[in-house]
Each structure stands twice: as structure tokens, then as C-alpha cells.
Amino acid sequence: MAIVAGMGRTWVLSLGGSLIAPDQVDTQFLGELGALLRELSVEQRFVVVCGGGAVARRYQGAYRQLTGSGNDDAADWVGIAATRLNAELVKQMLGDVAGDDVVYDPSVPPSFTGRVLVAAGWKPGFSHDYDAVLLAEQLRADTLIKLSNLAQVYSADPKIDASATPYESLDWAGMTDLMGGGWAPGSNLPFDPVATAHSARLRLKLIVAGADLTNLRRILAGESYHGTTVGPD
User: Fold this and answer.
1) Residue 146 sits in a domain of what CATH number?
2) How many domains would you assign to the chain?
3) Residue 199 lies in a domain
4) From CA 15, how far away is CA 31, in angstroms rounded?
5) What pLDDT is stored for residue 191 in this prediction?
6) Low-confidence ranges of the chain (pLDDT < 50)
7) So what's the pLDDT on residue 2?
8) pTM for this one?
9) Which pLDDT value is given to residue 188?
10) Is residue 2, in this structure, part of any structural domain at all?
11) Is residue 117 included in any domain, yes or no?
């Protein structure tokens, strides 16, 4: 693992595919995120792990319709391909600040010679959130930030249950209760259950936030922010 001399803290961002391409590619959001990363990565390093989002779920649905199959591994591979397309777009957008190859296997210490490292899905059985946790472990980052179309963790899916209430903070036991214990391809959860279990073992700090990049700037600056903080029990 190559490390740039003199660089400061390493932040790991789990970037939901719903923000990259909710329907079409959100070029405005990505352009603003790219500008922020270019600015802040002068003194800090960032790992951006890209999800598949709606694109992955659309193709997974097509796979199931075309084959009539319930093969979760095959559906996962289709979703992983979407994460890799999204990651390649983000890497190429960032240009010279993201010179390393996109990371596909987070279990291996990555080559990190630039200012931003981009990663994608690895293999079936979990989402890109778990890949982000493994990279945080590899790079000894103590905080993971999840950016998605939900600004906080709720007691239930707020798109379905109008009575769902948001949490400002949770311990890992409470987060585990909410996320459940198993992974299904195409799941639309605030955080992957497999990633939740491993984060709890590592005693990571997780911040679940939304798409507001001003809010992300506040998080990175150590200022007050809107979101859900998940910490060790």
C-alpha cells in the first residue's frame, strides 16, 4: 500500500448509486462533488466507494424477468457491473487526483498513490457498503460516511411508512436491529447488514448523511451536521 507523504486524514465515503444516477446520470451533483474532492484532497485523502443504485436494481429486475431465476449470486454480479460503471465514471471525472486503478477487491491492501481512490463492487453476498468498510479497515480510517438519498436512518422506510422517525444517533446494537442480519441483491437499506456487522466488530464510526454537499463539508470540518451518527456500543 503506497501512501502519499505528508497527507492528512483518510476519509472513506460510501457513495450511493442513487446519487450518481437516480434515473439519468446526475452530472450537476457529480460535478459539485468532484470540485469539493479536488479542493479538500489537497490536505486529506478520500476513498469513494460507488454503489449501483437504480441502475443495478433495473438490470437485476431485467435478469430475473428474462430468466425466471432466483439465483442471488447471478443477480449480485449484474449489480456489481453497475457499480463498476459508476466508479469508472467517477474516477475519470476526477482525472489526475484519482490516478490509481479502480479498486475491485477491498480485501487486498490497495495502491493509493493519488489524492482520491475510487472503488466499486467486489463479489456477491453484500453491497458496496461492505467494500467501504473493508477499505476503511485496510487504510486504518476510523470514520465512514454514507451518502445516499436518505439524510438519516429511520425507524422504518419513510417512503412507505409515514410514521417513521429519524435517529440522530445509534449504537451498533441498535443499528443491527434495524438493518437485520441478511443481504438480498437489490436491497434498498440505509446500510448493508453485512457491513453493519463488520463495522460493529471494528468499532467504526458511521455517519449516514444525504446528498447535501454543504452538509458533507461540515462533517469533514468537524462542525455540527445533519445526519445519523452510529458509534460503538
Assistant:
1) 3.40.1160.10
2) 1
3) yes
4) 14
5) 86
6) 1-6
7) 30
8) 0.92
9) 64
10) no
11) yes
